[in-house]
Amino acid sequence: MSKTPNRDRAMQLVAKYRKPPQAAGTRHGNTFRLDLRGPVLFYGEKGPGIDADAVVAGLKANQSARYVFVDIDSEGGSMIAGQQIYAALRAHPGLKITNADRLCASSATLILMAGDFRTCAANTQILLHAPEIPAEERKRWTAARHSQTAGILRRFSAELVKTYAERTGLDARVFEQEIQHEDIMGATRARKLGLVHCLAGEERWINGVPYYFPDPRCSLKTSDVAAFSPAELQAIARKRPDLWRDSPIGYLAFAAPSSVARRN
To answer: Which of 188, 186, 189, 163 is nearest to 176 (CA)?
Structure first.
């Protein structure tokens, strides 16, 4: 994700004098749960919604949790806050399972993509779209300002596309097109694009790791590919995505993080 030195330094100074945020989430044994609902709040924004500082604080306080379950029902909001939550989830050493419930749009999809295993409800609506920056009424929107803003938006869009492509294994061009038309998609298309692995409840747990096998008659067995690391499985799957996308190799490749695979 991008860094903006001036903004980051300013946020660090503000954070130095702010009260520590109340950590989000609940812990039950070796499982840490986050129930993220409402808009993804902008930095300093008050009101109900998803506070990135609180989510990050909760994750930091629960680094020992083996599992992190995240339920998401959000129309999105701040991309910077979404990036912050995404980075914190990816950095957590546990197995992250994210679930889109009812609505997952805009920057909330970044939170969804942070999951090592991703699910959704049958009626979930998911929306990918290009970022926007609302015009500030009291500023003069000269050609230079428009050009600068366009450059920022292009960078944000490229970061989004890169994240979707890396987490699904699909070509970035698929998501370059997807974020432009801004059509709400259902569970079927979300699964086709690899945004989710399956509907919630369809996964099968093996040695503490969830997997999804769309065809129970498939001749490939978990034991046949257990000797490969996730990186090796991803290399296999990327060579022939048309062949492996809906197979145990495809789902094992992108569902099992190396840290969990080593533990099990």
So the answer is: 163
Hey, what are 62's tokens?
């629960």
Mean pLDDT, all residues of the chain: 80
Residues 6 or more apart from 165 whose CB is under 8 A from it? 171, 172, 174, 175
First-to-last alpha carbon distance for the chain, in angstroms, is 30
For residue 210, what are its two tokens? 């969830």
Which pLDDT score is estimated for 228?
63
For strand 209-211 and strand 204-206, is the pairing parallel, antiparallel, or unpaired? antiparallel
Distances (CA, A) of 188 to 168, 184, 192: 15, 12, 6
- Contact 39/51 with Cβ under 8 angstroms? no
Take residue 137 and report the two structure tokens written for it: 């009424």
Q: Torsions phi, psi of 33, nearest 5?
A: -115, 140
The token duo for 253 is 């490749």
Between 219 and 91, residue with greater pLDDT: 91
For the whole model, what pTM was predicted? 0.74
Largest distance between two CA atoms of the chain: 64
Going from the N-terminus, what domains does the chain have, and what CATH number goes with each? 19-202 (3.90.226.10), 210-256 (no CATH)
